[in-house]
């Protein structure tokens, strides 16, 4: 194990000294923008100067040209197949990432004075709650995990959604705290709205249980800047008159997400990633691999006296694994050594400290094993 680790360090060091470090791929544990599948990057690179024999890159073609319209339609069709999206749902490709939808959702689904409900399990749900408060709404928080320092999710059945609420919003996975719901909350019959930014395409989802799903692309779907909205048709056409056109779901649906210039390169990459997932066995196979990676890393942490994970076991994320060292004074040395070993972006979010390993779809199990090898070696030397 130590021999393999030292060999990898030597390979990376030699490449950097020789100036050939562009050929060495690191294991990138960033929470987002995240590591992308190498086959997808290689295909995009091969097509970058001449996409489809056009003599232009996909970055340069008109979004209204027949070729790109077909590209966007293929990306949507692939996403529909992967997620088994029912016919009565529209798929929108919008700009601004998921954060823009913190405003887009109340603007599209409420009127001033309405009641909305939010479950607070971390910093992303807290940001959504704060934004909703800007729109003259009665914002109710039936469950709030701030007291647990966002290390748990509410117990099933422990909260009640207010009668007459326009929707219940929750964040299935919180990237910062590494907290994940292991169940779909009971919305009490009101539309369930979910920020799936960090778990979409990591496993199957029953889309029919949701009124609206939204997700930023930069974890499992592509580069930053793109937000995918999956919305049930009966929730369209309700936008407030003041809603910006580019956030009006009905208007964007009517224009096939091309009311303005869409994030074309991100849509193109989304399509490639969708095909990569299909070729690799679909979401069922992806779920098996993601479960195996998470169980391997958590199992190592739990067996160690040197590392610890603060999250309630039932609520542990498959995608984002925070951990601490026995002595925080060693954090800087740990990160420097990891960087030298080709294990990057392991520093925890500034608000919680420690470490965080994000192991999205594109992270192979070999990356998790390499991390465990390094963690074992570091603990033995500390």
Automatic annotation (TrEMBL):
Note the Pfam families from the entry. Aminotran_5
Annotated residues that bind pyridoxal 5'-phosphate are located at: 98-99, 124, 175, 195, 218, 260-261
Q: Which cofactor does it need?
A: pyridoxal 5'-phosphate
Cofactor comment text: Binds 1 pyridoxal phosphate per subunit.
Residues with N6-(pyridoxal phosphate)lysine modification: 219
Q: Does the keyword Zinc apply?
A: no
Catalytic activity of the protein? O-phospho-L-serine + 2-oxoglutarate = 3-phosphooxypyruvate + L-glutamate; 4-(phosphooxy)-L-threonine + 2-oxoglutarate = (R)-3-hydroxy-2-oxo-4-phosphooxybutanoate + L-glutamate
* Main function: Catalyzes the reversible conversion of 3-phosphohydroxypyruvate to phosphoserine and of 3-hydroxy-2-oxo-4-phosphonooxybutanoate to phosphohydroxythreonine.
What is the protein name given in its UniProt record? Phosphoserine aminotransferase
What organism is this sequence from? Actinomyces johnsonii F0542
């Amino acid at each position: 194990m130590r021999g393999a680790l030292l060999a990898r360090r030597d390979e990376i060091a030699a490449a950097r000294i020789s100036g050939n470090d562009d050929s060495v791929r690191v294991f990138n544990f960033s929470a987002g923008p995240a590591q992308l599948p190498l086959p997808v990057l290689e295909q995009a690179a091969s097509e970058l100067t001449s996409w489809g024999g056009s003599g232009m890159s996909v970055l340069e073609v008109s979004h209204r040209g027949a070729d790109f319209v077909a590209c966007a339609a293929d990306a949507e069709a692939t996403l529909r197949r992967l997620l088994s999206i029912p016919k009565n749902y529209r798929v929108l490709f919008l700009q601004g990432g998921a954060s823009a939808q913190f405003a887009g959702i109340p603007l599209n689904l409420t009127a001033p004075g309405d009641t909305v409900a939010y479950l607070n399990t971390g910093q992303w749900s807290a940001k959504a709650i704060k934004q909703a408060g800007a729109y003259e709404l009665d914002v109710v928080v039936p469950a709030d995990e701030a007291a647990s320092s966002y290390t748990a999710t509410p117990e099933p059945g422990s909260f009640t959604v207010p009668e007459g609420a326009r929707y219940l919003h929750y964040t299935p996975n919180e990237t910062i705290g590494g907290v994940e719901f292991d169940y779909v909350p009971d919305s009490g019959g009101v539309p369930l709205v979910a920020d799936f930014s960090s778990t979409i395409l990591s496993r199957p989802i029953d889309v029919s249980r949701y009124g609206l799903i939204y997700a930023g692309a930069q974890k499992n779907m592509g580069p930053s800047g793109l937000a995918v909205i999956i919305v049930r048709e009966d929730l369209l056409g309700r936008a407030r008159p003041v809603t910006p056109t580019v956030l009006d779901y009905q208007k964007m649906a009517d224009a096939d997400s091309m009311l303005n210039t869409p994030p074309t390169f991100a849509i193109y990459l989304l399509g490639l990633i969708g095909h990569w997932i299909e070729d690799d066995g679909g979401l069922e196979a992806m779920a098996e691999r993601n479960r195996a990676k998470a169980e391997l890393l958590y199992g190592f942490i739990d067996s160690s006296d040197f590392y610890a994970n603060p999250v309630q076991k039932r609520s542990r994320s498959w995608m984002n694994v925070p951990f601490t060292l026995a002595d925080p004074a060693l954090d800087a040395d740990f990160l420097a050594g990891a960087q030298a070993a080709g294990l990057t972006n392991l520093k925890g979010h500034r608000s919680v400290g420690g470490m965080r390993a994000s192991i999205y779809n594109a992270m192979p199990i070999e990356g998790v094993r390499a991390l465990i090898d390094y963690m074992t070696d570091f603990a033995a030397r500390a």
